[in-house]
Design brief:
564 residues; alpha/beta; Rossmann fold; six-stranded parallel β-sheet; 23 helices; disordered N terminus; thiamine pyrophosphate binding
C-alpha cells in the first residue's frame, strides 16, 4: 500500500502530480484524454505544470493523436485513459503506433491495490494485454515510484526503433501523497542517453565502395528518414552521388517535387533494373512484396534502426544498424572523394528512369483530367495535389481512395505526409488533424478521408470545432468499403461483391455543418477546386463531400497480395 501520511507539515506530493512533473521533464506539453475517475489526479498535476489537457470523445482518438503528435514533433506523445474500457478503447491506437515505430506513452488507470482481485470497477489485466504491442508495459507499484516509472517508460520508447510504452497506475497509488524526499523524480535531460548510432564504420566504407562502383543505383527513403530527421543527409547523398530516390511512408517529401533526383512512378522499373538498391528505414513487409520486388541480381543494402528488421524476409548483401541521418552523412563523406563518387556515369541511368516516369504519367493523364461524373478518384486526388502549398501537411485516412492518392499526391516539404503506417488502421484522420494543428499551428492541414474511414472516429470533428482547429477535409464518398469490395468481387463474383461492405449515402457536408464546421457537397469535377478554396478560406474545420465513382479501383488495390 502507498503511504498516506496525515502530517500536513510535511512537503507532500501526490502520484498524479509526480506523473505530471515527469511528463514535463520529457517535454510533453499536451495530453490527449477521455476523463475517468481513476485518472483525474493527473489532470490536477498537469494544470499545475502548464500541460494542456485535450479531451476527446473516444479513447482511440486520444491514442492516435498521441501517435500523430510524436511523428510531427519528434517528442513522445502522451494519452491518458481510464481503466477497463478506457484502456481497451485505446488498444488500436497503441498497436498502430507500435507498427509505425512512433514513440508515445499511454497511461491507463486501474482499480486500487486494496481491491486487487476483488472485482473492482473496470478492473482488467491491462499490462498483460498491452505487453505484445508495446516496447514496455508495467504497473506502478508505489506512489514514490510514479515519476521514476514514467521516465523509465520514455527510455524504452526510444531504445532502437521508437515505439509506444504503457503504464498502469492503480487509483490509490495515483491519489496518495508521499513526502517529496521519498519520491524519485528524475531531472530533465539526465535519465536517458542518446540512442543515435552511426553504424559500423567498416560497413559504411563498404557501402561507399558499392556506390562508387554502381552504374544503376536506386535508394528508397522510408519512414525512418523522417523519424531520424535525416532529410538533409539523404538529400546531400542523392545529389552528391547522383542517385535516384524513391520515398514512401513518412519519408515522402524528403525531396520536393521537381527535384531531378525525385522519382515516384518508376519504382518497379528501377528495382527490376538496378545493380545496387539501398533500402532506408523500411522493412521487407507486404508493401515491399516481402522483398521479392527487388531484382535478384541487384546488390541489396538495408539501413535500419532495428537489427531485427535487417535481412528479415529477404537476404541482403550488407546491413547497417544505425540512425539514418548519421549513416547517410558518413556514406556521403566516404564516397564523395572517390572518382567523383561515381556520379558522372549515372547520367544515362537517371535519364532512363525519367523516361519511364514520363511514360507512366502520360498513361494515367486522361484519368487525372477526367470530366466524368461520378468523379474519377484520380481526378479528385489530382485536384488535391494541385491545391497543396509548401506549408500543407497532407493526411490520408482510408483504403482505396488513399491508395489512389499515394500515386499522385506529393508533399512539398519533409514531415508533411501522414498515413497510418503498416497496420493499415482506418480512423487516424481526425486524431492526426488534432495533433497536427496543435503541434504545428502554423501549418495548413489537408486531409483525405474514405467515407468508411471517417465514420470510425468522425465524431471528434466536434473536438476540432471546440478547440477551433481549422483544416481542409475531403471525403471521397463512394458509399462503400471499396478496397474490400474489389477483393470480394474478384474472389466470389459480382453477385456477392457487396456483401458486408456497402455503406449509406451519407451527406458528410451536412454532418460538418451540424457540428459547427464548414461543409460542401461536390458532384462535378469542375466544382472540386472552388470548394477546396472556400473550405480553406472558411477558417473552420471543414468537410468537402465529394461523390466519386464506386466502380473505379486503385491499381494498388487490384494488386494487393491478400487477393492473390
Amino acid at each position: 500500500m502507498p503511504d498516506s501520511p496525515d502530517d500536513n507539515s510535511q512537503d507532500l506530493i501526490s502520484g498524479g502530480h509526480l506523473v505530471a512533473k515527469a511528463l514535463k521533464a520529457e517535454g510533453v506539453d499536451v495530453i490527449y484524454t477521455l476523463c475517468g475517475g481513476h485518472i483525474i489526479d493527473i489532470y490536477d498535476g498537469c494544470a499545475d505544470e502548464g500541460i494542456e489537457v485535450v479531451d476527446v470523445r473516444h479513447e482511440q482518438v486520444a491514442a492516435h493523436a498521441a501517435d500523430g503528435y510524436a511523428r510531427l514533433t519528434g517528442r513522445p506523445g502522451c494519452a491518458v485513459v481510464t481503466a477497463g474500457p478506457g484502456t481497451t478503447d485505446a488498444v488500436t491506437g497503441v498497436a498502430n503506433a507500435f507498427r509505425a515505430e512512433s514513440p508515445m506513452l499511454l497511461i491507463g488507470g486501474q482499480g486500487a491495490h486494496s481491491q486487487h482481485k476483488m472485482g473492482s470497477l473496470q478492473d482488467l489485466p491491462h499490462v498483460d494485454m498491452m505487453t505484445p504491442i508495446t516496447k514496455f508495459a508495467a504497473s506502478v507499484p508505489h506512489t514514490a515510484r510514479a515519476a521514476d516509472m514514467v521516465s523509465m517508460a520514455f527510455r524504452e520508447c526510444f531504445h532502437g526503433a521508437p515505439g509506444p510504452s504503457f503504464l498502469e497506475i492503480p487509483r490509490d497509488v495515483l491519489d496518495a501523497k508521499v513526502p517529496r524526499a521519498d519520491a524519485r523524480l528524475p531531472a530533465p535531460g539526465h535519465y536517458r542517453a542518446s540512442t543515435r548510432a552511426a553504424g559500423d564504420p567498416e560497413a559504411v566504407e563498404q557501402l561507399a565502395d558499392l556506390l562508387v562502383r554502381a552504374e544503376r543505383p536506386a535508394i528508397l527513403l522510408g519512414s525512418q528518414t523522417w523519424t531520424c530527421r535525416a532529410t538533409d543527409a539523404a538529400a546531400e547523398l542523392v545529389r552528391t552521388l547522383n542517385v535516384p530516390a524513391y520515398m514512401n511512408g513518412a519519408g515522402r517529401g524528403t525531396l520536393p517535387p521537381g527535384d531531378p533526383h525525385h522519382f515516384q512512378l518508376s519504382r518497379r522499373y528501377a528495382f527490376n533494373k538496378a545493380d545496387l538498391i539501398i533500402i532506408v528505414g523500411t522493412p521487407f513487409d507486404f508493401r515491399m512484396g516481402y522483398g521479392k520486388r527487388l531484382s535478384a541480381d541487384a546488390t541489396v543494402v538495408q539501413i535500419d534502426l532495428d537489427y531485427r528488421t535487417v535481412g528479415k524476409n529477404r537476404d541482403i548483401d550488407l546491413g547497417i544498424v544505425g540512425s539514418a541521418d548519421l549513416v547517410l552523412a558518413a556514406v556521403t563523406q566516404a564516397a564523395s572523394g572517390r572518382l567523383n563518387g561515381g556520379s558522372d556515369k549515372r547520367a544515362a541511368w537517371l535519364e532512363e528512369l525519367r523516361t519511364a516516369e514520363h511514360a507512366a504519367a502520360e498513361k494515367r493523364l486522361p484519368q487525372l483530367r477526367s470530366d466524368a461524373s461520378p468523379i474519377h478518384p484520380y481526378r479528385l486526388v489530382s485536384e488535391i495535389n494541385d491545391f497543396l502549398t509548401e506549408d500543407s501537411i497532407y493526411i490520408g485516412d482510408g483504403g482505396d481512395i488513399v491508395t489512389f492518392s499515394g500515386q499522385v499526391v506529393q508533399p512539398r516539404s519533409p514531415g508533411h505526409w501522414m498515413d497510418p503506417g503498416p497496420l493499415g488502421t482506418l480512423g487516424v484522420g481526425v486524431p492526426f488533424v488534432l495533433a497536427a494543428k496543435q503541434a504545428r499551428p502554423d501549418k495548413e492541414v489537408v486531409t483525405l478521408f474514405g467515407d468508411g474511414a471517417f465514420s470510425l472516429t468522425g465524431w471528434d470533428f466536434e473536438t476540432l470545432v471546440r478547440y477551433d482547429l481549422p483544416f481542409v477535409g475531403i471525403v471521397g464518398n463512394n458509399s462503400s468499403m471499396n478496397q474490400i469490395r474489389y477483393g470480394q468481387k474478384a474472389k466470389y463474383g459480382e453477385e456477392r461483391e457487396r456483401l458486408g461492405n456497402t455503406l449509406g449515402d451519407v451527406p458528410y457536408d451536412e454532418f460538418a455543418r451540424m457540428l459547427g464546421g464548414h461543409g460542401e457537397e461536390v458532384r462535378e469535377p469542375g466544382q472540386i477546386r472552388p470548394a477546396l478554396e472556400r473550405a480553406r478560406e472558411s477558417g473552420k474545420p471543414s468537410l468537402v463531400n465529394v461523390w466519386i465513382d464506386p466502380d473505379a479501383y486503385a491499381p494498388g488495390t487490384m494488386n494487393q497480395t491478400m487477393y492473390k
